[in-house]
């Protein structure tokens, strides 16, 4: 159960950078909708709290705080009396952690998973429960707004899906990027990272080897560009899927008058599945990116690192 405690403590570090980024100057309040405007959708950026959205605390920050605090309390409750034969909440958390550990061990190897499991498990659990929290009724529909002729509409919500904010997803991606650099240097060293990116591959000799050195050096620059874009692609993939899902639920709820509570129900089940898939995809991509730099072909899937 010590693994769970490490995971819970790291959740605070994962959430903290997102909070700072979310309060940046780019998060200016969106203008209030004009009277008679019928199009209501989730704004691309998370708005500040208050009737005019002027607070530095955004709605997505509040959701992230709530999810992190709830996870900490649940795990503390489950581990208050650790039993040799787990039952109830302890059994659930041990099953979740052990399942994630065995799953990742089969992908990146036993030695690498010992050093990186705390991050991958944390990122999966935090993303999953943040995605699911955004589906709770009241998220996005409670807050400050206007009361036009056709009914009240929330312009500045109190709560907003944490991963429907690009600042949060980008913060998690940048934390992974920093960890990736540390793990790469620890595994192969600075020289090893340089050779992995720019070094020639194969057993060529003579003039052909000189040509391959030039070719692989050029390929290395392309690989560096690809690595630098990984945090961007990771953040936009998660943000885009969650943002689109919440907009879809918003549209379904307003499509048919007087039946807005019923029409989105089937889509809620789909979004539950999307929440799991997106958490799994984020975790798997970060794990594979780490394996590519830390585990080489001569390691036989990571076995050589543990030898």
Describe, in plain words, how this protein is organized in 3D:
- The protein is mainly alpha-helical.
- The chain has one domain (about 1-305).
- Helix content is about 65%, strand content about 5%.
- It has eight helices and two strands, in the order H-H-H-H-E-E-H-H-H-H.
- The chain has helices spanning about 1-20, 60-80, 90-110, 110-135, 165-200, 205-255, 265-295, 305, and strands at about 145, 155.
- A two-stranded antiparallel ribbon has the order 1-2.
- Strand 1 and strand 2 form a beta hairpin.
- Helix 5 runs parallel beside helix 7 (about 265-295) and helix 6 (about 205-255) runs antiparallel to helix 7.
- The two termini are about 25 Å apart.
- Residues about 1-40 and about 295-305 have low confidence and may be disordered.
């Amino acid at each position: 159960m010590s693994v769970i405690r490490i995971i819970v403590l790291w959740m605070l570090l994962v959430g903290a950078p997102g909070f700072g980024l979310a309060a940046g100057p780019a998060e200016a309040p969106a203008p209030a909708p004009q009277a008679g405007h019928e199009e209501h959708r989730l704004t691309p950026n998370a708005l500040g709290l208050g009737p005019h959205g002027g607070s530095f605390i955004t709605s997505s920050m509040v959701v992230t705080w709530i999810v992190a605090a709830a996870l900490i309390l649940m795990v503390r409750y489950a581990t208050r009396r650790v039993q040799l034969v787990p039952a109830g909440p302890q059994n659930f958390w041990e099953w979740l952690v052990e399942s994630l550990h065995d799953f990742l061990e089969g992908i990146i190897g036993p030695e690498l998973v010992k050093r990186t499991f705390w991050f991958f498990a944390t990122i999966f659990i935090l993303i999953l429960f943040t995605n699911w929290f955004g589906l709770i009724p009241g998220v996005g529909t409670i807050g400050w707004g206007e009361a036009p002729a056709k009914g009240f509409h929330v312009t500045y919500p109190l709560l907003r899906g944490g991963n429907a904010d690009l600042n949060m997803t980008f913060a998690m991606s940048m934390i992974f990027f920093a960890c990736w650099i540390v793990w790469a240097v620890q595994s192969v060293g600075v020289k090893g990272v340089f050779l992995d990116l720019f070094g020639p591959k194969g057993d060529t000799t003579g003039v052909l080897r000189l040509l391959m050195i030039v070719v692989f050096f050029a390929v290395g620059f392309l690989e560096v560009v690809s690595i630098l874009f990984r945090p961007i692609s990771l953040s936009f993939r998660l943000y885009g899927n969650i943002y689109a899902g919440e907009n879809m639920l918003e549209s379904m709820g307003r499509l048919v008058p007087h039946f807005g509570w019923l029409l989105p129900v089937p889509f809620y089940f789909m979004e539950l599945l999307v929440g799991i898939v997106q958490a799994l995809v984020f975790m798997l991509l970060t794990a594979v990116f780490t394996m590519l730099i830390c585990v080489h072909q001569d390691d036989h899937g990571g076995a050589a690192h543990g030898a």
